[in-house]
UniProtKB/TrEMBL annotation:
<dbReference type="Pfam" id="PF00389">
    <property type="entry name" value="2-Hacid_dh"/>
</dbReference>
<feature type="domain" description="D-isomer specific 2-hydroxyacid dehydrogenase catalytic">
    <location>
        <begin position="4"/>
        <end position="118"/>
    </location>
</feature>
<comment type="similarity">
    <text>Belongs to the D-isomer specific 2-hydroxyacid dehydrogenase family.</text>
</comment>
<dbReference type="InterPro" id="IPR036291">
    <property type="entry name" value="NAD(P)-bd_dom_sf"/>
</dbReference>
<protein>
    <recommendedName>
        <fullName>D-isomer specific 2-hydroxyacid dehydrogenase catalytic domain-containing protein</fullName>
    </recommendedName>
</protein>
<dbReference type="InterPro" id="IPR006139">
    <property type="entry name" value="D-isomer_2_OHA_DH_cat_dom"/>
</dbReference>
<keyword id="KW-0560">Oxidoreductase</keyword>
<dbReference type="InterPro" id="IPR050223">
    <property type="entry name" value="D-isomer_2-hydroxyacid_DH"/>
</dbReference>
Length: 181
């Protein structure tokens, strides 16, 4: 039976799917495995799911001769030596759109928090200074606001799409012209 190492904790439904193909060894987290621990766990594994904290390079691959796939739970492969994997016949996969929408959501949430002075208001309440409603932290709204985005790659486009509901103009600067419709 195949051995699959998950370098970070993942959702149970992912583990359930992987268990149909092999024995899963998942990091319980929350801290990542150190490089020595990961290499030790992968020395007889056929697959590893790697995240941003793992470095998969030639030295790591030398210690893991049975490895056949590095499944990157990332949108890129900066921490995976694809050439070293290719030379050893180890397949590499990534998820190019893995975090685009969640990151765009957080961006819009931070924009709202900044406009509405949420953090200073939170600190004020937690310091025990709240004594009834005052307009001090009311802030402004994104509704109808002109918002500028620098960079209109997948993330910039996702932010602009999410801002559509606020009804304001969306401006961007990028080397390519986009259709925002």
């Amino acid at each position: 039976m195949e051995s699959i190492v998950l370098a970070q904790p993942v959702e149970n439904n992912v583990v359930n799917v992987l268990e149909q193909s092999g024995v899963v060894d998942m990091n319980p987290g929350p801290e990542p495995f150190g490089s020595e621990e990961l290499a030790h766990r992968c020395q007889s594994a056929s697959a590893v799911m790697a995240f941003m904290t793992e470095r998969i390079d030639a030295e790591f691959l030398d210690r893991c001769p049975e490895l056949r796939i590095v499944a990157g739970a990332l949108k890129g492969y900066d921490n995976i030596d694809v050439d070293a994997c290719s030379r050893r016949g180890v397949a590499v996969s990534i998820v190019p759109d893995l975090l685009t929408d969640p990151t765009a959501e957080l961006t819009v949430a931070m924009m709202i928090a900044l406009a509405r002075h949420s953090m200073p208001a939170d600190r004020h309440v937690r310091a025990g200074k709240f004594n009834g409603w005052r307009p001090t932290f009311f802030g402004s709204s994104l509704v109808g606001a002109t918002v500028g985005i620098i960079g209109a790659g997948k993330l910039g486009q996702a932010v602009m799409r999410m801002l559509t509901g606020f009804g304001g103009p969306r401006l961007y600067h990028d080397v390519k012209r986009l259709s925002l419709e």
